[in-house]
UniProtKB/TrEMBL annotation:
Residues 1-284 form the Deacetylase sirtuin-type domain. It comes from Lentinula guzmanii. Transmembrane segments: none annotated. Keywords: Metal-binding, Mitochondrion, NAD, Transferase, Zinc. It is found in: Mitochondrion. It holds the Pfam family SIR2. It comes from the Eukaryota. GO terms for molecular function: histone deacetylase activity, NAD-dependent; metal ion binding; NAD+ binding. The keyword Transferase applies. The lineage of its organism: Eukaryota, Fungi, Dikarya, Basidiomycota, Agaricomycotina. The keyword Zinc applies. The active site is at H139 (proton acceptor). This is DHS-like NAD/FAD-binding domain-containing protein. One of its GO terms (cellular component) is mitochondrion. Zn(2+) binds at C147, C152, C191, C194.
Length: 284
């Protein structure tokens, strides 16, 4: 059985050299962001996870863009919660040196809402000492776009509201009981460089995660892994704690419910809301 001793965990934390954080949807739940996993994971009449695929994109680019337009507008009004800020403080030497003075940290998040980076940016702007920890959005970011043309390298942050006029109001049309709108390909977001179609720069099911080699290297060198708010069902993120454990590192799981997916490698398990438990247990 994993330990629930905060004192013992902090002893491990204080001696850690390389910390890997793996976070998931549970970290952002308190910010009001839907997980689209399990019961209720639907958008309109569709299984939301099916829409985040290359097959769905080839079948109906209008529908996929309407879904991601909805996600963008949902996330736009959300703010980081205390869990985001606690993990962001771990990326700042000012705070981390008080609990893990000799450690480096790499935070790998499966979330595409951008709230982990937003929390770190806020803390950084108010600090004289820059962050030295790394946050990797392994599945991308809702507000990033990439050109679909094979020979175009356009990739950018896009915070436009809406991202194109034709997508504005599509949710309201469906909510009013009307037929799903069909947005013409010509009216969807297009690349300013080559005029080809843009797509959300997020990792769809079946695609290779971003910076995967760097992530695997971080897992192989970590002597402590913090698993935060994730059901650990999606590979390769689900395998990262296992790699740390196999190399002799310790694994601490923070989740709202007991996480049986990591029962074999978890040395510590802390059950409770991420937004309150992370800061309390880490001591930052």
């Amino acid at each position: 059985m994993p330990s629930t001793s905060i004192e013992d965990f902090r002893g491990i934390l204080s001696n850690a050299r390389n910390i890997l954080v793996v976070s998931g949807a549970g970290l952002s739940a308190a910010s009001g962001i839907a997980t689209f996993r399990g019961q209720g994971g639907r958008w309109r009449k569709y299984d939301a996870s099916i829409l985040a695929t290359l097959a769905a994109w080839h079948e109906n680019q209008s529908r996929v863009w309407q879904f991601f337009h909805y996600r963008r507008e949902e996330v736009r009004s959300k703010r980081p919660n205390d869990g985001h800020y606690a993990l962001a403080r771990m990326c700042m030497p000012k705070w981390r040196r008080t609990v893990a003075p000799n450690a480096t940290i790499v935070h790998v998040t499966q979330n595409i809402d951008g709230l982990c980076l937003e929390a770190l940016d806020e803390l950084s702007s108010a600090s004289e000492e820059p962050p030295d920890g790394t946050i990797i959005e392994m599945h991308g970011n809702l507000f990033d776009v990439v050109c679909t043309a094979f020979d175009c390298d356009y990739r950018a942050k896009n915070m436009d509201y809406p991202i194109c006029p034709a997508l504005g109001g599509t949710e309201a049309i469906v909510a009013a009981g009307n037929v799903e709108p069909v947005v013409r390909r010509a009216d969807l977001p297009h690349c300013p460089k080559c005029q080809q179609l843009l797509r959300p720069d997020v990792v769809w099911f079946g695609e290779r995660p971003k910076q995967i080699q760097r992530i695997l290297e971080a897992a192989d060198s970590a002597d402590l892994c913090l698993v935060v708010g994730t059901s650990s069902l999606v590979q390769p993120a689900s395998k990262l704690p296992e790699r740390v454990h196999a190399n002799g590192g310790k694994v601490a799981v923070f989740n709202l419910e007991p996480n049986t997916n990591h029962s074999d490698e978890a040395d510590f398990e802390f059950v409770g809301p991420c937004e309150s438990e992370i800061a309390r247990i880490l001591g930052v």
